[in-house]
Amino acid sequence: MTSGTLTGLLATAAAVHGDRIAVDDGETAMTYAELRQSATRLGGRLGALGVRPGDRVGLLLPKGIAFVVAAHGVLAAGAVYVPLDLSAPAERLAAVLDDCGVRAVVADPDEADRVAGMPVVTDPLAAVPGDPGVAGQAVREPDDAAYILYTSGSTGRPKGVVLSHRNALAFVDWAADYFAVTPDDRIASPAPPHFDLTVFDLFVPVRAGARVVPAPPEVAAFPVEAVDFMREHGITLWYAVPSQLIMLSTRGGLPAGGLPALRAVLYAGEVFPPARLATLMAQLDGVVFHNLYGPTETNVCACHTLTGPPDGPVPIGVPASGAELSAHADDGTPVPDGAPGELWVRGPSVMRGYWGADPVALHRTGDTAWRDGSGRWHFVGRRDHQVKSRGYRIELGDVEAALLTCPGVLEGVVVAVPDELITNRLTAFVTATAGVTAADVAAHCARVLPRHMAPDPITVVDALPRTSTGKVDRTAVAARHGAARNASAQNGGDR
Amino acid sequence: MTTRDRIRQFILSELNWRGTVEELTDDYPLIKRKAVDSLDTLRIATFLEREFGVKVTDADLTNRNFGTIAGLAGFVAARREPSA
Fold first, then answer.
1. How far apart are CA A203 and CA A191, in angstroms?
2. Which top CATH class is B3-15+26-80?
């Protein structure tokens, strides 16, 4: 057993809370002793398939008990888990598998055909006759990689964020303490496995001997099912992106006092429009709301706990997970309190680096923020062409690069049109050879981009406006789009 | 065109379908594979109301009704029946 690792975390939970329920999906429940045993057994099976410590193992599973066992099982093998996006088209999936050299995959039985030609385990919970059973755990060190999360890259290829056991535990330890998690807590998040929010429901319960209830995909898709799920399972801590919470508020049919067990809602990933947040807080009277901030590269590095409904923008708060935050001018010099600058983050939760690149000592977030006199941080916006949509961070250049790989497309520009529900709508304008339609381009994007990066709508135009230097004039494109929308609204067209 | 085919056509043409036409079977798990997300379900609801004249409430937005094309068609059929 190694302390300071995620495998050590589970071993400790199995020793201290062995008879407590670790994971429960409503059909199957598993104690911490059973979870550790299943994970160790799966680790042994992966080893028998040729997986060695440090190897990467993909997880192509929806959130569920199998996913929880699979993640711990990969770690038990001393390997690095790589959660894969179930909605990713084949090319994107192949790019991720290739980028970090995935050696084997734990897959849902329905998805196994998508990773043909690679060792695949489709029954991670099974005790296969003749398997190595409870072979000794591969010992890892705190600075070894634990998992890789893929995010939008600036080169058109997915970029792997490598996080160590130490990185994960910096967040897990902070969160278990800050949210005062106890063995009585029941924790859930509708975020999909490849989203960094999932680090919370996967590991924070383990630190505290609490229970994770893995939220299946339908809970993320249907607000009414989310409310039923939270009520049925007595969820006490819920972690989601604002767009999901807005749906909960507007379409979940939240009854007054209908979620008596719920004590805290955590949100992250996007700015929560204050009026929407105030409405949800009124619906969930007595529940404490926390705004968590941090890119995938740093996990949560700041947190603000609301003491009442917001009457303006919500701060991102004070440093978390042992992070140090600072704001810098373009030349790298620190700026004083009150002045906006690029937010830099150092500390134990900051990633080891991107896969295949040099290690980093700090992460420059690309976000502009400022610190007030009381030490609280406030988010201003993005500095570059990255935007947030549906809680995902998207490099507009990546989407544009994908447009240009579509046969017949000559130029493409993507602008982010503010949208209250999904933060930004990716709106594409392309020029193309005769006969190429918007539907052709949309079909191409669906083949090469994950769902959250696919532009919608796409418009084929005769020409794109230019700046004096000949570059596409994004401001003019955006203005033209706004004008077009207003015109269609005046004409009474709804779509 | 059958109800199922009309719904299939809508998903193919309006919802950024990322597979082949053949893959979008009546029983394809739309939610499990994230072929549609929560915003898409609202667009499907609007489509059902417009195309088939049925009323869709928030409480109808469930995996049972919206999880597959077969489920959607079943939902439409049930709503069109005059209540017994």
1. 14
2. mainly alpha
Cβ within 8 Å, pair A218-B63: yes
Cross-strand partners of A151: A159
Taking the CA of residue B41 and the nearest CA in chain A, the distance in Å comes to 8
CB contact under 8 A, B34 and A247: no
Residue A364, H or E segment: strand A363-371
Q: Provide the residue-wise pLDDT of chain A in tens; the chain has 495 residues.
A: 446 999 999 999 999 999 999 999 989 999 999 999 999 999 999 999 999 999 999 999 999 999 999 999 999 999 999 999 988 888 889 999 999 999 999 999 989 999 988 999 999 999 876 555 555 567 789 999 999 999 865 456 789 999 999 999 999 999 999 999 999 999 999 999 999 999 999 999 999 999 999 999 999 999 999 999 999 999 999 999 998 898 899 999 998 888 999 999 999 988 888 988 999 999 999 999 999 999 999 999 999 999 999 988 999 999 999 999 999 998 999 999 999 999 999 999 999 999 999 999 999 999 999 999 999 999 988 787 778 888 888 888 788 888 888 998 888 889 888 888 888 899 999 988 889 999 999 999 988 888 889 998 999 988 887 766 666 777 778 777 654 443 333 333 332
Nearest-angstrom CA–CA distance, A213 and A23 = 6
Q: Residue A51 is which amino acid?
A: V
Report the C-alpha gap between A6 and A14 in whole angstroms: 12
Q: What is the dihedral of CA B36, B41, B43, B46, to 10 degrees?
A: 150
Last residue of a domain, one of A316, A348, A380: A380
* Domain termination residue (choose one: A361, A380, A399): A380
**Helix residue ranges per DSSP H, A256-325:** 274-283
Asked if A247 has any chain B CB less than 8 Å from its own CB, the reply is yes
Asked whether B63 and A218 are in contact (CB, 8 A), the reply is yes
Domain range holding A104?
6-380
Residue A495: inside a domain, yes or no?
A: no
Q: Tell me the C-alpha to C-alpha distance, in Å, between residue A198 and each of A191, A234, B23.
A: 6, 19, 29
CATH at A464: 3.30.300.30
Nearest by CB: B18 against A224, A439, A447 = A447
ipTM for the complex shown: 0.86
Regarding whether A162 and A44 lie in a shared domain, the answer is yes
Q: Into how many domains does chain A fold?
A: 2
A1 part of a folded domain: no
A483/A406 same-domain check = yes
CATH code for position A331: 3.40.50.12780
Test A89 with B18 for CB contact under 8 angstroms: yes
Asked whether the beta carbons of residue A439 and residue B62 sit closer than 8 angstroms, the reply is no
Q: For residues A140 and A179, state if they share a domain.
A: yes
Task: For chain A, positions 298-317, list CB contacts with chain B under 8 A.
Answer: none
